[in-house]
Amino acid sequence: MAVDIYERLLDRLRGMKAAAVGFSGGTDSTLLLAAAKEVLGDRVLALTAVTPYMERQEAADTLILSAQLGVRHELVELDMPDGLEANPPERCYLCKYALYKRLLGAAREAGFEKVLDGSNLDDLGDFRPGLRALRELDIDSPLLECKITKSDIRRLSELLGLPNWNKPTNACLLTRLPVGQRFTMEDLHRVEEAERFLRTLGYSWLRVRMHGDLARIEVAPEQRLQLLEQADTVVKTLRILGFRHVTMDLFGYRLGSMNPAGSGGARSVSGEAAASDESPSTDSATQGAEHRLHPGVRVEPS
After folding, report:
1. Which residue, of 35, 280, 281, 290, has the greatest Cβ tally within 10 A?
2. What is the pTM of this model?
3. CATH number for region 2-167
4. CB atoms < 10 A from the CB of 10, how many?
5. DSSP H or E run through 248
6. Given 3-state DSSP classes, what are the helix, strand and coil percentages for the chain, each rounded to the nearest 5?
7. Given a cut of 60, is residue 73 above it in pLDDT?
8. How confident is the model at residue 129 (pLDDT cuts 50, 70, 90)?
9. What SS3 state is found at 206?
10. What integer is the mean pLDDT of 181-191?
């Protein structure tokens, strides 16, 4: 039952005097922040790392969400970690270690000794070298510890009225590049603008993978025909952005399609399946549970 899962998370947080939450604005960290706010009240701090390789809109979104939740929030600047400009196979470890080391410092400066991360149970089944960095830095992951899955998170988030409950999974812009391909800030901005443009056409579950001057577009399988129908418009815009060649990946949108070889492979994602399979069920276990879950932190989309 959704109520039992949420109570398990609240019980885990009740053992803390205060905590800072690494807050990316995604569904996982938003649920964790909302739960921490319910348990800890003013003794919670949201910390968002602003890096050169994150989408600029993501930082703006975190400010809106934290204001809706009524949580104190700080943006923490992070320079490019050493060695990351080569996009090495261990990029996620290098990034996560540098990022959470910086957040730990910011938290302690603000009087918070404990920092929480929004990793969930499903992350154990994917290529997640950053989890090692979290262990080395003694970062707690309550969602993971409580065995809460991504589908649980989406179900709970909608019941709580969190506006991003169905937000597509996102990752830093480095995941759009092949491992080992050196990059410039111009490369990252090109990818970011290409994806921003495609979202204006109605694509939510998408990636623009960059192979030099070639853009490989991944969209949800049910939108592949739509992309072909809009090919002329898409090609024209992406060529203006600097891509000489524009292609569509026939597999469709896949999580981890740029993961290093031998890391477990990519997982295909259907936008329709994600919206239906991970949305709240209509069984009697969850109907009417909303008021029992989180009456104090419910927010409305702005």
Report:
1. 35
2. 0.82
3. 3.40.50.620
4. 17
5. strand 245-248
6. 45, 15, 40
7. yes
8. confident
9. strand
10. 95
Q: Determine the residue type at 20.
A: A
Rounded average pLDDT over 105-116: 97
The two structure tokens encoding residue 260: 């290093």
Other CB atoms within 10 Å distance of the CB of residue 245: 13
Residue with tokens 């029992």: 292
- Ramachandran angles phi, psi of 208, nearest 5°: -110, 105
Q: In what order do the strands lie in the sheet with 72-77?
A: 72-77, 44-50, 19-22, 115-116
C-alpha 177/C-alpha 188 separation (Å) is: 9
Query: What number of other Cβ atoms are within 10 A of residue 284's Cβ?
Result: 9
Give the count of beta carbons closer than 10 Å to the beta carbon of residue 274.
Answer: 20
Judged by DSSP in three states, 126 sits in coil
Backbone angles phi, psi at 224, to 5 degrees: -65, -40
Closest CA to 167 of 10, 14, 28: 28
Residue 243's pLDDT is 98
Q: What is the Cα–Cα distance from 89 to 95, expressed in whole angstroms?
A: 11
Contact partners, residue 252, CB within 8 Å, separation at least 6? 218, 219, 220, 221, 224, 268, 269, 270
Cα–Cα–Cα angle for 66, 72, 76, rounded to 5 degrees: 85
Token pair recorded at residue 94: 């290098």
Question: CA angle, 249 as apex, 243 and 250 as ends, to 5°?
Answer: 150
- What are the domain boundaries of the chain? 2-167, 173-274
For 215, the 3-state DSSP assignment is strand
pLDDT averaged over the chain? 87
